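Why this split exists: single-chain examples teach little about how molecules sit against one another. For that reason, every record in the complexes split bundles all components of an assembly together and asks for one structure covering all of them. Below is a record exactly as it appears in the raw files.
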Amino acid sequence: MSERYNIKETEKKWRDIWAERKSFEVTEDTSKPKSYVLAMLPYPSGRIHVGHVRNYTLSDVVARYKKAKGFNVLNPMGWDALGLPAENAAMERGTHPKDWTYENIAQMKAQLLSMGLAIDWSREVATCDPDYYKHEQKMFLDFYKKGLAYRKESVVNWDPIDNTVLANEQVVDGKGWRTGAPVERRKMSQWFFKITKYADELLQGIETLDRWPDKVRTMQHNWIGKSQGMNASFPINGTDEKLDIYTTRPDTFYGASFFAMAADHPLAKKLAGDKEGFDAFIQECQSVGTSEEAIEKADKLGFDTGYTVTNPFTGEELPLFVANFILMDYGTGAIFGCPAHDNRDHEFAKKYGLKIVQVVESPEGTPDVQDEPYIGPGKIINSEDFNGMEVDEAKAAVITALEEKDMGEGATVYRLRDWGVSRQRYWGCPVPVVYRESDGACIPVPDDQLPVELPYDINYDEPGNPLDRHPTWKYTTCPETGEPAIRETDTCDTFFESSWYFLRYLDPKNEERGFSDEKSGYWMPVDQYIGGVEHAVLHLLYSRFFTRALKDCGYEVPDEPFAGLFTQGMVTHATFEDADGNWCFPAEVEQRDGNWVKISDGAPVKQGAITKMSKSKKNVVDPEDILDAYGADAARLFILSDSPPERDLEWTEGGIEGAWRFVNKLHRSLTDILGNLPDKDTTQPSKFSENAKKLRSQTHQAIAGVADDIEAFHMNKAVARIRELSNALSGFKAKDEADYWAQREGYEALICLINPVMPHLAEELWEQMGHDTILAETQWPKHDEALLANDTVTIGVQVNGKVRATITMDSDASKDDYEKVALEQDGVQKALEGKSVKKMIVVPGRIVNVVAG
RNA sequence: GCGGCUGUGGCGGAAUGGUAGACGCUGCGGACUUAAAAUCCGUUGUCCUUAGGACGUGGGGGUUCAAGUCCCCCCAGCCGCACCA
C-alpha cells in the first residue's frame, strides 16, 4: 500500500522550490521566441473569488504550456488599486483608503500564491503606488501637449450617491453602474481624452484582431458606430437662423414631411421659448427618464415651433418641430423626417397627422407605407431627376446636388464620444495641472515635480471630494511665474491605470519612464490576454486608444496592445432558499435522502435557479476554503474540466470532489507500480507486444492531442484526454520488460501533460520517477509521428446509411479488402436480403456504406 | 426593435460531412469490510419480451451514398445595444 498523498505539504513544498529557484522570473532573451501571457489585473477587494480562480487558472495553463514549448514566457500580476470601494470602505469603517488597499493586497496575494501560479512576482505593481501613477501623470501631460487631453464645460452624468461624475459607459439604464441610483445631469468643467480622433483607426484595427472573439469585435464595432451621411443647412423661414441637420438618408428628401430638433437644441428655446406650452413640453421630455422601459414605451412627442423650413428639392414649406426622440449629442441634433422610410418618423407622422410619401420602391412589390415604413433597398420614385436610381446611387447624387448649391456636404458621424476622465474623488490619480489664480491659466506640472502625490491626511467628515476641502494640499504656486495657484482637485477615471499597466509590467522598476522602448519592443504585443467579457468595450477600447495615443507621443508601442484575447464565462452556482425566503450559503446546506436541508437544524431548503455567483444570493463558495480542503491542483482541475472555458461553469460540490479523487488516484496508481518500472534512462527495447504498441500509440496521441487542445483553449478536452491516458495506464497489465518500459514512457508523458493543469502533483510525481530536474523548467515531450497511427482501425459498415456492423481492418488495407470484409458481415448480409448492391462507398479508415435497393 | 450566441442522455459536455453520446458527474449491481467510509470491478440514451430490432442531436423541409455538422423556414433560451436620424 502506498502512502496517502499529502496535498497540503506537497503543494507548499513545490511552491517554495519554484520561488527559491525563481522559476518564473524572466528577462528579455532574444534566443527564444517570446510569449506575453496576461490575465486582467484584479481589483484588491480583499478576497479572491471563484471568477479570479478561473481566470488565473486559464492564464496559468497557457503560461506553463508555452514555457514548456520553449517560449520565453512573461506572466505578470498586479493590482488595480485605485477606485471607489476603498473610499466607500473608508467612509463606512473609518479606515484609510491606502491602508485598506494595501491590507487587501497582502491578503489576496497570499491567496493567489496558494494557487501555485507561474507568475513573475518580481514585476508586481500596484496602481495606487506614486511610482506607478507618476508615469501616468507624465502620459497625461504628453497627451495634453498633443491636444489629446483637453478641458471643456459639459453636461455630465452625476451619481448622487457616490458624489461623482460617471462616464457614459458607466451609466446603465439611466442608473449609476455601481450604486444603481438614477443619474442626474449637471454641467461642469471636465477633462477629456480625445479618443474620437482615433475612431476610424480603432474601427479599422478591429479587422486585424483575428484572435479576438467575434462577439467582442462586434461589440466594439457597434460601440464606435460609424455612420455615413451628410450635413445640410437650410434657412428657417422668417428668421435669420439656419437649421443644421444630419441624415444618412439624403435619398429620401422628396419624402420629407417635417423637420425636428432636440429639446436641448439651442435654437429650440430661442425660437419657441416664449410659446405657450413650451416649458411644459420640455419638462415632459426630461421627466420621461432614461430607463430602458421608459424609452421603450415613450411616445414620440413633438412641439410645433410654428416656423417652417423649405424642402430644397420640392420647394415645400415643412413644419419645424422640437421632438423628444432627437438626441442633441448625435450628429447635429436636428433632422428632417421621412415617415415612409423610417420607423420613428413614421410613428411621429401618424401621431401628428403628417403626410407619408413613398420615395423608395421595394423590389418585392410595393408595401403600403401608410401602415408601415419601408426601410430596405430599392428604386427611387416620386423624386423627379432621381427616379429610377438605386438607394445608394441616389444618396450620392443628392449629396452632390446639395454640395453644388452650397447647402451641405457628405459627413461621417460616430457614436463614440470622447472619454471623460474627471472624477471628483480622492482615491485616484491626481490630474497634474495647476490653475494660476491671477488669470486662471491651466499650467502643467513640470516633469521634475511629478508625481503630484495624494495627501495622506484626509477625512470623510463631509460629502464631496476630500482633496477639494483639504486645508493645504491644493494651494501651491505656478511653476512658471511663482504666483499663487490652485491644484486641479479632480482625479482620473481608474480605467486610466488599466489602460497601460501591461506596459508597466515590462519595466516595473524604471524610474525615468513608464517603460523603455527596448522592453516594449521585445515583449509587446500581449500574445494572449484573458479576462471577463464585461470588459469587452470599455477597458479594451481604452487600451487600444492608449497605445495609439502613446505612439503619437513618441513611445514605442504597437497599435494593437492585445494580439490574442480570450473571454471566459461566468461561474454559476445553485441558489438555496429556506422556508422563510432567506438565501443560504452552499456551505450551510446538505442533501439528506435526496432533499436539501440546513446542516444546523435540518430545516428544509429549496434549491433555486443556477445563477452567477453573487453575494446577495449567497450562492458563493470561498476559494480559500476550496484551496484549503482540496488543494490547488484539484481546484484547478475542476475549473478546467467539463465546461468549455468560454461558457458558464457551474460550480458543484460533486465536481470538486471528483477532481480531488482524480488527483489522489493518479498519485496512488503511479506510486503502486513505481517499483516495477525500469529506471529512468533505460534504453528502449527493440520489440513491443501488441498491447504495448497500443499503449504507446495512446501515449503519443495524447501528447499531440493535449497540445492541440490547449492551443485551441479546449481545456475541457485536454482534461478528458489526460483522463483517457490515465485510464489506459492504470488498466495496463504489463507482462514483460518492454511492457514496463512502455508503461513508464506513458506515465512520464502523462506527468508532463498534467503539469500545466496540476503543477504540484506533476512535480511530485516527476521527482518520484527519479528525475532531479524541475518540471517547471522541462520541455514538453515530443510525440513520435509514426506512433500516432494505430496498426488497425475499427470502422462502421452501413447499409443505406444505417450501421449494420463494425469491422476492424489493418490500417493499410486496400479498398477491395474493405469491400470484401464488409460484405461478409452477418449484419450486412441480413440487411441486404432481397436487395442488390448498387454501389459501394469505401473511405478507408472512415466508413463503408453499401448502397442497395 | 436591431445584432450576436446557444440548443445533443438524469446532468456538464465530446464528435476534420463518415460507428452519435468520448471524458466526467449521478444512479444501479457487485467485491472488500463486523459495519461504514475510502477504494476496486461491472453497468447506465429511449422504447420493444429476448436473440435482435426500432427510434434518437429544439421543430419542419432540403442537399448528399452518408447530416448533430451544410442550406432554407420556424421555435425556445441567453448575451449585447437601445429613439444614433
